[in-house]
């Protein structure tokens, strides 16, 4: 394996820094566009129509040994948070963390859970179905 000279290492580092700056600038533009779109949609009162979001929404991500549940609901749609945690527990997951935030007229709940027994796992499709029944 050839060793890179100090000059080559500096050139690689400079190239990497340049790429990262370009990526940061691109992400800033995307963020600004998203903020502008959100402000425009809120001012016209059509935020949920523009996003195409019919509330409530359940999103489940399976990471093998852990799962993430994201629930998005309106301020007027209440469900019992403990019932969601109960469903996860009954299906073999242990809740590690849970949080929520309110943005405009939407409430975002995020729950992170770990599989209790790795050999058995968690049947995420069943969890999703039960959560759909719970929120509807």
TrEMBL record:
GO terms for molecular function: DNA-binding transcription factor activity, RNA polymerase II-specific; RNA polymerase II transcription regulatory region sequence-specific DNA binding. GO terms for cellular component: RNA polymerase II transcription regulator complex. It comes from the Eukaryota. This is TRANSCRIPTION FACTOR BHLH162. It comes from Salix purpurea (Purple osier willow).
